[in-house]
Specification:
The protein is α+β, with helices and mostly antiparallel strands. Helices cover about 40% and strands about 20% of the residues.
């Protein structure tokens, strides 16, 4: 393919350098990369093997090309065509001279060895009759050596003269490129500041302020006003406009006295009376209470006392833009970042934080109706984002083979295991078993891009949840996270996109929409709305709330088609009972702002524990040094670990190339506690737990664990 074709990805492409190549049977091939999987079928086993060999060779070539590009990362922008033509001629001449030097060097080595042999023979001579011939041979060798040496000296002289004549031109070109780079950086920074000033000016416009006030005082009611007053964004915050979509549905609270209608699909959260909703199912009734208060005393077994604070974050000043400006358009996992921008947790531990509100799944087990159970699953899927609202720091990228366990089987009824199963692209496999009746597993690949003013983090891969008694199997995917104000202003995080949760047994569905933040929007910030429907498409519940505070559920008693919007779409009007609070965020611990805004669970994740695997994130030295406030030592240790991992990767790649040249199969890295299988539900190649970890922990047999720290 041409460079123009390679610059654009078309439908049906896959990056071989990071792909997994597996065979299902004698004729089928499975290519998987993150959340994308292709199934190929050959006509025969011989043809399949030819394709596998060709794909492996192409993958090895792609890896070499990627490594060459990564080694050259941070290059200057391409020079113009005229600059290229000016450089091409001298470089070609220099290359030719360099080849002449190499040839002369080889000849000198050859003739020098011959001369040495002749001299040795001359020393061993005893008969004067033979000395004349030998001395003549020595003279011939010396003459050849002298001629070759003179040729090399002349070639060196020509090389130096040519390099000297062009050195000034190279210096001018290099200086020009540097000036262009500096001007571009200054322009980008100035544009960002102007954009920020314009948005602050728009916020202070009288017409806009009065219009916003009138909206929140009429349709939104006290809910919108309270949210606006509680906003903690300062004037330095930079906001990005999003196109405001018209709500797909309108909810009306069924109240025989008032029949209040809300102007958005928030279901009148603060106006409803939960006691008016009398369901026979006691699960919703128990959910009406605060989840935090309930969780503190619902377990009868005594809990182990765990730490409630960590050392305060040091006040180190470092300019993020000074590092990120050279990384625009690159994969975040390939950007070397100091620990100053990290938090003392790994990505595996951040993934485990999804279980902070595990009691939602414990309640879902008790639901007799699959649609009611879907409401709790939907609330659980939203709750995993509540810890991110203030967490602008980057977690540590796990090393290949790194693991993290969270054993709360006796205290909370579940045990969790994560493993980093791929480094490029970074992928982690996660498995959770609960003795209270559910199992959760996921294989998540993190794709991230820095776009100059913001950073997009896109988790790829599906999350699976299965309930043991009913067999209900739920699958959903995460939304995109965006970190704004990279250049100037206060960093802030937003979640945007849609989540479709599907029960593959009953075919129930829940469509959740995460509305991106916009200052000009009438919606509450960080709003999430959705509808739970059965296999026939009939809506049963309306979900509403925010991903950083709470989620509510309203039972639909009647639905009808409303008026047509200006965009030509017909809205659905749902008449609902008063909402029930399914989930509410736990309050942050005291002094959380000085402890990376960690939640109560996050504070315990890196707490040292005995008997864990030697690959556990708690034992990672750079992360431990950072948590202790020794950031300079942590940066040195982080570089050591990364270089150690690169050396292992280079050795593995060399083994792969050697195996391919010999016609042998090379499996590559094999996860320790997970195995790659084609998922029967999604058809994707994922890593699932194969067992053995907890048994190895009981025996304290960690012989299979590599030395990664």
């Amino acid at each position: 393919r041409t460079q123009a074709e390679m610059a654009h990805t078309c439908r049906g492409t896959i990056n071989l350098s990071t792909a997994h190549i597996d065979t299902e049977d004698s004729c089928n091939i499975v290519l998987s990369n993150g959340g994308r999987t292709y199934h190929l079928k050959a006509n025969s086993e011989v043809e399949r093997q030819r394709w596998v060999t060709a794909l492996e060779l192409a993958k090895a070539k792609a890896i070499r090309m990627r490594n060459n590009q990564s080694d050259d990362s941070g290059d200057e922008e391409p020079a113009s065509q005229s600059d290229k033509s000016e450089l091409h001629g001298p470089l070609k001449t220099l290359s030719s001279k360099l080849e002449d030097l190499s040839t002369c060097n080889e000849l000198i080595a050859k003739h020098g060895a011959a001369l040495q042999r002749s001299l040795s023979e001359l020393e061993n001579l005893r008969l004067p009759a033979d000395s004349g011939e030998k001395i003549k041979a020595v003279n011939e060798r010396a003459t050849l050596f002298r001629i070759t040496s003179n040729a090399m000296i002349n070639a060196c002289r020509d090389f130096l003269d040519l390099a000297e004549s062009h050195s000034r031109k190279w210096q001018r070109l290099l200086q020009h490129e540097r000036e262009q780079r500096i001007r571009l950086e200054e322009t980008i920074e100035q544009l960002a500041k102007q954009h920020n000033s314009l948005e602050r000016a728009c916020r202070g416009a009288p017409g806009l302020a009065s219009g916003t006030a009138s909206i929140s005082s009429t349709a939104k009611g006290s809910v919108q006003a309270a949210k606006g007053e509680a906003s903690d964004e300062d004037e330095e915050t930079e906001y990005f406009d999003a196109m405001e979509d018209a709500p797909a549905f309108i909810t009306v609270t069924a109240d025989p006295k008032h029949h209040r209608r809300s102007g958005s699909n928030l279901s009148g959260a603060s106006e409803g009376h939960p006691e008016d909703w009398n369901l026979e199912d006691s699960v919703f009734e128990s959910s009406n209470q605060s989840s935090y208060n309930e969780s503190t005393g619902k377990d009868l077994l005594p809990r182990k006392r765990r730490r409630s604070r960590i050392p305060d974050k040091p006040n180190y000043s470092l300019n993020l833009w000074s590092i990120m400006k050279n990384c625009i358009g690159k994969e975040l996992s390939k950007i070397p970042m100091p620990v100053n921008f990290n938090e003392p947790l790994s990505m595996l531990q951040r993934l485990t934080e999804d279980l902070e509100y595990h009691e939602l799944l414990d309640k879902a087990v008790k639901c007799e109706s699959s649609t009611e159970q879907m409401c709790f699953v939907a609330a659980f899927s939203v709750s995993s984002y509540s810890t991110t609202v203030h967490r602008t720091a980057k977690p540590f990228n796990p090393l290949l083979g790194e693991t993290f366990e969270l054993d709360r089987l006796e205290e909370l009824g579940f045990r969790s295991l994560c493993e980093q199963v791929s480094h490029h692209p970074p992928a982690a496999a996660h498995h959770v078993y609960s003795r209270r009746g559910w199992t959760l597993w996921q294989d998540i690949t993190i794709s991230s891009k820095f776009r100059g003013k913001y950073l997009s983090i896109m988790p790829l891969g599906a999350i699976h949840l299965e309930f043991h008694s009913s067999g209900n199997h739920y699958v959903w995917r995460k939304v995109t996270s965006t970190v704004h104000n990279i250049i100037v202003g206060k960093l802030w995080i937003d979640q945007s996109g849609e989540i479709e949760i599907v029960n593959h047994k009953s075919k129930d569905k829940c469509q959740l929409k995460f509305t991106p933040y916009s200052y000009f929007s009438r919606d509450v910030p960080r709003k999430v709305t959705g509808v739970v429907s059965d296999a026939d498409g009939k809506a049963h519940y309306v979900m509403s709330g925010t991903w950083d505070e709470k989620m509510e559920c309203s039972k639909i008693v009647h639905s009808s088609h409303g008026s047509t919007s200006t965009e030509g779409k017909q809205k659905t009007v749902y008449q609902t009972l008063s909402p029930k609070v399914l989930w509410r965020k736990y309050p942050l611990p005291e002094n959380a702002e000085n402890m990376y805004f960690f939640s109560e669970l996050a504070l315990t994740l890196n707490e040292p524990e005995e008997r864990v695997a030697p690959t556990d994130s708690r034992l990672r030295p750079d992360q431990r040094l950072m948590e202790s406030g020794r950031w300079d030592e942590a940066n040195v240790e982080k570089q050591r670990l990364e270089e150690k991992q690169r050396a292992v990767r280079r050795r593995r790649e060399a083994e792969a190339v050697e195996a391919l040249e010999e016609g042998k199969d090379y499996e590559g890295y094999i996860p320790l506690w997970f195995e790659r299988k084609v998922d029967a539900v999604t058809g994707e190649l994922i890593c699932v737990y194969k067992g053995g970890y907890w048994e190895a922990k009981d025996k304290q047999d960690w012989s299979v664990c590599p030395d990664i720290f």
